[in-house]
Amino acid sequence: MVILEMNENGHKWEKQNLVTLTSSKGGYDLYVCANCGIKGKSYTPGFIEIAERYRNKAMGCPNCERTKVVRVTKCVAVGKEFEALVPGSLHTVVPPPPGQNNKRGEWVMGATEPVLLLFREFTYVD
Length: 126
Prior knowledge:
Elements: E1 2-5, E2 13-15, E3 21-23, E4 26-33, E5 39-42, E6 47-50, H1 55-58, E7 69-72, E8 90-92, E9 105-109, E10 114-118, E11 122-124
Antiparallel strand pairs: 1-6, 2-4, 3-4, 4-5, 5-6, 7-8, 7-11, 9-10
């Protein structure tokens, strides 16, 4: 099992049941990603358990249509490059630097160079 925070990795989770289901582990809700179709169970609010067979898709939604602007919800990084990344600020997504990728988040401009915002630190703006 892979356990993820629900607001990470670009997935768009949709709840599948109206009433909380029960099992020997306790109450849970079923979720499906509207973009890539992977399924998971949420036993704890904000977290989702994904089957091991979905590990590659779980780490980053492959079918996610990402917008070009993100809104910072929280940024725990420190330093001069991150001073403008305050909650509520909007930033344009930039291409990742050479040798880097977007598997853990989106790249935005810091003070002088691109910095990585993790998936749990922002939301996409339509």
